[in-house]
Amino acid sequence: MRILVTGAAGFIGSHLSEKLIELGHDVIGVDCFTDYYSKDIKRNNIASLIKNERFQFIEADLLKLDLRKLISGIDYIYHQAAQAGVRPSWGKSFEVYNRLNILITQRLLEAAAKTNIKRLIFASSSSVYGDTPDIPMTEHSLLYPLSPYGVTKLAAEQLCYLYWKNFQVPVVSLRYFTVYGPRQRPDMAFNRFIRATILGEKIEIYGDGEQTRDFTYIADAVSANMLCMENGSPGNVYNIGGGSRITVNKVIEKIENISGSKLEVSYQEVQKGDMRHTYADISKAKDELGYAPSIGIDEGLANEVNWLNEINKKGLLCR
Q1: CB–CB of 58/27 below 8 Å?
Q2: Nearest Cα to 81, choosing from 19, 131, 137, 28?
Q3: What are phi and psi for residue 306, nearest 5 degrees?
Q4: What one-character DSSP code corresponds to residue 263?
């Protein structure tokens, strides 16, 4: 199969591209290397991929490419490209989120509507749930995003649905719940906490640390994407969680035990846009995709600790 992966140099996109290559597919990866975090880190993410003859990399802004030409002959599209981050999405920055999360998705769907692709898998987020009262969160829960980022991911989801409904674009959306593991973005909590154990720095927790998250290991998120090639129904949305819902304080305790380093924690005010709890009901993904997360929080955290120690040896650890 010929497969397009947008955001291929990112955290999930690079793992996804590697898995597709491993399964014998030809992958075209596109990434524009936004300045959200270090370009060197992203280049390191795809260092091994670049050497593979089955991988073609295009460094470009999707809005400046001829998308119909790009996806001509493509069998599957994994749309991972987006401007990430809840807290930076306020104010003038919203223009960037609108452009990279909504407009690009619309242009890609418009191009896909004129092709015969087998499936377009869109990377959504648990941030669309926001202030919903439902715990666990189901695909039928009311959606009350608490951040501009969450609003843009929900808008993109809705675009996916309407292009399926009106133009039969075979699109499936996956709502990721806090994906972690090797290559996790440097702004994400686990990366920041583990990095602090290596550098001997203080960490800041926004809130009392008793907020909970459903943490999903990267290999499980990739597995969900692979299952979408054949399973699931176009026009549908699926929760992708890891079954590791614990408090932030408990995560810190686990990282301290794995690393052997005590963290100095400073508790700060809750940030606008932050959700108090997330917890995925993944029964729909289990039933329709065959999804079953297999990596627990202790194993996953140990893997991320080992990876960041290796990154530190390469001089790529963010400071």
Answers
A1: no
A2: 28
A3: -60, -40
A4: P
Per-residue pLDDT tens over the stretch 99-142 = 999 999 999 999 999 999 999 999 999 999 999 999 999 999 99
- For residue 277, what are the β-bridge partners? 212
Give backbone dihedrals phi and psi of 282, rounded to 5 degrees, phi first: -105, 20
Active site residue 291: no
Distance in angstroms (rounded) separating the CA atoms of residues 12 and 218:
7
pTM as predicted: 0.97
Q: Enter the tokens of residue 231.
A: 């399973």
CA distance 178 to 191: 12
Residue 103 tokens read as 């407009």
- The answer to whether the beta carbons of residues 50 and 58 sit under 8 Å apart is no
Q: Which of 78, 149, 163, 238 is catalytic?
A: 149
Q: Which residues fall within 8 angstroms of residue 149, CB to CB, at 6 or more apart?
A: 83, 84, 85, 86, 89, 97, 101, 125, 127, 273
- Note whether 219 and 184 are within 8 A (CB): no
* Separation of alpha carbons 283 and 131, rounded Å: 21
